[in-house]
Amino acid sequence: MNIHEYQAKELFLAHGIPVPPGRVASTADEAHAIARELGGTVVVKAQVHSGGRGKAGGVKLAANPQEARAKAEAILKLQIQGLPVRKVLVAPALDIAHEYYLGIVLDRAEGLPLIMVSREGGIEIEEVAREKPEALFRHHFHPVIGLREFEARELATSIEPDQKVARQIAAILRKLCRAYVALDATLVEINPLVLTPGGDVVALDAKVNLDDNALFRHPELEAMRDPDTETDQDRQARELGLSFIKLEGTIGCVVNGAGLAMATMDLVKHFGGEPANFLDIGGSSDPRKVVTAIRIITQDPQVRAILFNIFGGITRCDDVARGLVQGIQETKVELPIVIRLVGTNEKEGREILRGVPGLTAAETMDEAVQKVIELGGAA
Amino acid sequence: MSILIDRSTRLVVQGITGRDGSFHARAMKEYGTQVVAGVTPGKGGQNLDGIPIFDRVSDAVRETGANTSVIYVPPPFAADAILEAAHASIRLVVAITEGIPVMDVVPVMKEVQAMGVRVIGPNCPGLISPGLSKVGILPGEIHLPGPVGVVSRSGTLTYEMVYQLTRSGIGQSTCIGIGGDPVIGTRFLDVLQLFEADPDTKAVVMIGEIGGTAEEEAARYVKESMTKPVVGFIAGRTAPPGKRMGHAGAIISSGRGTAEEKIAALEAAGIPVARIPSEVGPLVQRALDRGRG
Questions:
Q1: Is residue A122 very low, low, confident or very high in pLDDT (cuts 50, 70, 90)?
Q2: pLDDT in tens, A315-338
Q3: Domain B139-292 in the same topology as domain B10-120
Q4: Fold annotation for A21-92
Q5: Is the CB of residue B228 less than 8 Å away from at least one CB of chain A?
Q6: Looking at the partner chain, which of B75, B159, B237 has a beta carbon nearest the beta carbon of A343?
Q7: Where are the domains of chain A?
Q8: Which of A35, A88, A332, A376 pairs with A181 at a CA distance of 20 to 30 A?
Q9: B20 touches chain A (CB under 8 A)
Q10: Mutation to test the A interface, candidates B103, B168, B254, most A Cβ within 10 Å
């Protein structure tokens, strides 16, 4: 799950990482009030889950509260990479002596969190890695041990020779590592971390991505989910534990297992169709998941035919069949459905589907995909 | 022959009283796996179709000589269950559970590595040596004993490939799903090394997907050190970037981990890559024929 910058900054603050004061506004009037309270020049920042906010006109300076109102009004009308801006963060504009980069990601190959720091902040870290790899310093840490003081000092000194400043960076690094573990984050990033002319080090921006699998033990983080960032279909899928990603095509796909679901989409494309979605009904067998899957897919007006590709393992074909029958009854779906059912309890599943109208059975994956494209039309 | 599991495998099922645990304990026993024990804390002394249930893995090992464990424990407790098995002298732990927080898995993998215990998964379908033993949730009836090793990050896509191999009369030595999570105990590279060393495996099918660089790492090994032919498939050519495609590990992040990159890496290592699943069988047949000739 992604959270907004203002939420990430609240979490940073709770972990003792210095962030500039500031508050979030959903209207231009609120932005005006916050700017007046803060005094001086402020920065108004769009709160959306996307990079490139600055380039899209989502980050503006305002010299006074009136200007803050006008900028907020304009930003709140923006769509950034297809996402509507519903909130802005209003914070004092800081004078900047230097910008650094601090980030922690999961290094899959090493199986450990990886800290990355650079003296080159304020630009995308991928760009630093490409253009100036010598300016990027990396260090793994064990989540139970954490980042030790000497390691933090080592890293901080490699990006800032002045020890007075480096000490502050080292302290922030250790807190950032603790936050990464405590929050069950998959990514935390401060870009930029800034040094002010007064010698203070502050997180000017904040990015936190959270491990969806760990949200069950973080109700306070689950509460940060922004309903505006997900569609009705996304929400239904999430609540029943389905993995659903909407695409632009016409062939609705219901598959069990992520790998097979991807391969099914790839095959639809290969045979000249366009998949309408990625949908993995997951590992366990629950007929309600199938019903929800049909409901979600039939809510997409572009869908012209539905393909079920089920290979039973932990998923039992009879459960899927029961869900399919129930789903057809509940949604009164009239679209052609092609179903291919193999594996655990396959015979029982086929028995349940015998005589259900509107269903076309297929033996192989190639046959199923070709049939559904025939019924739903190629792209 | 086979890798990792065979007739000598003595299995303890952790989480045997749950819906999935009990269903698949029965299915494994039916397939011929020696399911010698189950573990559910608080249910010790009971039994499932004659399989004795214990409170602790250590009891199960002492009483039944279990040497392999399979885990169907719910996500909040699954990482701990892996460690319990490792500390009870189990040498091979197969973690089926999907949805374990990655921060739980990271320290567990470091600890079991140091102990010399092999973990497969988590978030995996397990493994099967056709005709000998199956540990996990794979449907046994689609498999056929034979010379091809199969390794995959996916569950059901593996079944799909195996089903097609079996229908073309190509049997398998061992089929193993290594799991769809970002941090897993056994990687492509580890399994390829085992297949390379197994005298009865003549060719290998490697089924990868978007996200991470494990396929690239495996391709380097194939090019430099592997003598047996490998056939590849990569899922996710139509996956949009930045979206988690079901598996926690299946995500293209910052433009890295795309199917195209992986296919290119495999082909550069001399591994033929099937464009669609039904091409895998013919490619494997060709590799086997060449091996014989």
A1: confident
A2: 888 989 999 999 999 999 999 999
A3: yes
A4: Dna Ligase; domain 1 (3.30.1490)
A5: no
A6: B159
A7: 21-92, 98-222, 231-374
A8: A88
A9: yes
A10: B103
The residue ranges of every structural domain in chain B are 10-120, 139-292
Whether chain B has a CB inside 8 Å of the CB on A313: the answer is yes
Q: Which CATH number fits domain B139-292: 3.40.50.261, 3.40.50.970, 1.10.443.10, 3.30.70.1050?
A: 3.40.50.261
The Cβ of residue A140 has, within 10 Å, a number of other Cβ atoms equal to 13
Does the distance separating the beta carbons of A258 and B106 come in below 8 Å?
A: no
Which overall architecture, per CATH, does domain A231-374 show? 3-Layer(aba) Sandwich (3.40)
CATH 1.10.287.70 assigned to domain B10-120? The reply is no
Question: How many angstroms separate the Cα of B35 from the Cα of each of B29, B32, B96, B253?
Answer: 6, 8, 16, 41
- Reported pTM: 0.93
**Residue A358 pLDDT > 90, yes or no?**
no
Local confidence band at A128 (pLDDT 50, 70, 90 cut-offs): confident
Give the active site residues of B: 247
Q: Which of A245, A259, A275 sits opposite B243 (nearest CB)?
A: A245
Put simply, the answer to whether A259 touches B153 (Cβ < 8 Å) is yes
- Whether A113 sits inside 8 A of B106 (CB atoms) is yes
What confidence tens digit (pLDDT) does each residue in B200-250 have?
999 999 999 999 999 999 999 999 999 999 999 999 999 998 888 888 888
The string of pLDDT tens digits covering residues B84-106 is 999 999 999 999 999 999 999 99
Residues in A closer than 8 angstroms to B237, CB to CB, are: 266, 269
Per the DSSP assignment, residues forming a β-bridge with A99 are: A194
ipTM for the predicted complex comes to 0.92
Minimal Cβ distance to A260: which of B99, B142, B154 = B154
In a mutational test of the B interface, the residue from A144, A217, A314, A341 whose CB has the highest number of chain B CBs within 10 Å is: A314
Query: Rounded distance, CA A220 to CA A216, Å?
Result: 10
Average pLDDT, chain A: 93
For domain A98-222, which architecture applies? Answer: 2-Layer Sandwich (3.30)
Residue A209 Cα, gap to closest chain B Cα (Å): 12
Q: Identify whether the C-beta of residue A296 lies closer than 8 Å to the C-beta of residue A233.
A: yes
pLDDT number for residue B292: 62
- Position A87 pLDDT exceeds 60: yes
Long-range contacts of A241-244 (CB under 8 A, 24+ apart): A241/A282, A241/A289, A242/A279, A242/A280, A242/A281, A242/A282, A242/A289, A242/A292, A242/A293, A242/A296, A243/A278, A243/A279, A243/A280, A243/A282, A243/B244, A243/B245, A243/B246, A244/A277, A244/A278, A244/A279, A244/A280, A244/A293, A244/A296
For residue A260, give the chain B residue with the closest CA: B157
Mean pLDDT of A285-295: 87
Looking at every residue in chain B, the average pLDDT score rounds to 95
